[in-house]
Amino acid sequence: MADARSYPERPYLATSAAIVRDGKVLVVRRARAPASGLFTLPGGVVELGETLAEAVAREVREETGMAIEPVALAGFREAIVRDADSRVKRHFIILCFASRWRAGEPVLNEELSEAHWLEPAELAGLPTTPGLMEIVAAAFDRLAEAA
Questions:
Q1: Does the chain have fewer CB atoms within 10 Å around its N or its C terminus?
Q2: Angstrom distances, CA of residue 88 to CA of 9, 11, 30, 67, 136
Q3: Can you give the pLDDT at residue 2?
Q4: The pTM is what?
Q5: 114 a catalytic residue
């Protein structure tokens, strides 16, 4: 089923959060496309009039029910999906933020099938979105610099 973000006229700007609590990062497993079945970071599209920090905090709250404190940009990812005819089916630019957990526990919903607090080394061997381990490592570095 196509959505409004399929075959876009422009890239979509999105945010995600590497949320750290007690030396562990929250990873979620997507329950639907895009990235269905993959472990990734919670996040979503920036809405008109939002700052990046507002967008990442809102998306995390909507997806997981948790409160976070975005601290610093940990990196970015470009997600470009092409169809069999090489047409751009989806295009997202995702700014990933190193974030501190503030309150709440992850609540699953129609977008998420699993949520786990893991040590970074535990990400190895999981089916993840491209570059997840590098973003998580950078997030831990940014949080250490900000301490």
A1: N
A2: 9, 10, 21, 34, 28
A3: 56
A4: 0.92
A5: yes
